[in-house]
Amino acid sequence: MNLQIYSDGGARGNPGPAGIGVVVVDRDSGKKLEEHSVYLGKTTNNQAEYRAAILGLERAIALGAHSVELVADSELIIKQARGEYKVKNADLAKRFLELKNLETGLGGRVQYRHVKREHNKRADALANQAMDRLK
User: Fold this and answer.
1) CA 24, CA 9: separation in Å to the nearest integer?
2) Taking all residues of the chain, what is their mean pLDDT, rounded to a whole number?
3) Backbone angles phi, psi at 70, to 5 degrees
4) Dihedrals φ, ψ of 73, to 5°?
5) pLDDT-based confidence at 134, cuts 50/70/90?
6) Are 19 and 40 in contact (CB under 8 A)?
7) Which residues lie closer than 8 Å to 83 by C-beta, 6 or more apart?
């Protein structure tokens, strides 16, 4: 199974109430397999972005994916995952290691692609739904 995972995280305030959204799609059929909207509590935007990507890769492993394309609108997360940017923040480094360990669990068959926010609308909406549930 080849998966495409759209992930997004956000925080209202930085740090502030945060949520993540993840959409899992079968790349071969284009069929949406799963959607996740999870409230995280108080954290930063970057932590939320990492948590969304991590959940996406966890779901890929659980579904038995052979390859994954992780799509996100966070340039920081994508470029750090590709090794183009260094991870300087100690707390983000922990999340980065989680992400890389999951990548290893997928045999390293993970590609990371950055898109503009308008190409990640459903994951963004799910992240916002998670944050809205606390109002």
Assistant:
1) 15
2) 97
3) -95, 120
4) -95, 10
5) confident
6) yes
7) none
- Within the chain, what is the greatest distance between any pair of CA atoms? 41
pLDDT at residue 12 above 80?
yes
Span 61-93, pLDDT tens digits: 999 999 999 999 999 999 999 999 999 999 999
Cis preceding linkage at 17, omega within 30: no
Domain ranges in the chain?
Answer: 2-130
Both tokens of 14, joined, read 């930085």
Kind of pairing between the strands at 32-43 and 16-26 = antiparallel
Residue type for position 72: A
Place of tokens 């945060």: 18
DSSP 12: S
d(CA 76, CA 37): 21
- What is the CATH code for 2-130? 3.30.420.10
What single-letter amino acid sits at 49?
Answer: E
Could you identify the residue written with the tokens 């969304």? Answer: 52
Using alpha carbons, select from 97, 104, 105, 66 the residue that is nearest to residue 80.
97
pTM beyond cutoff 0.85 = yes
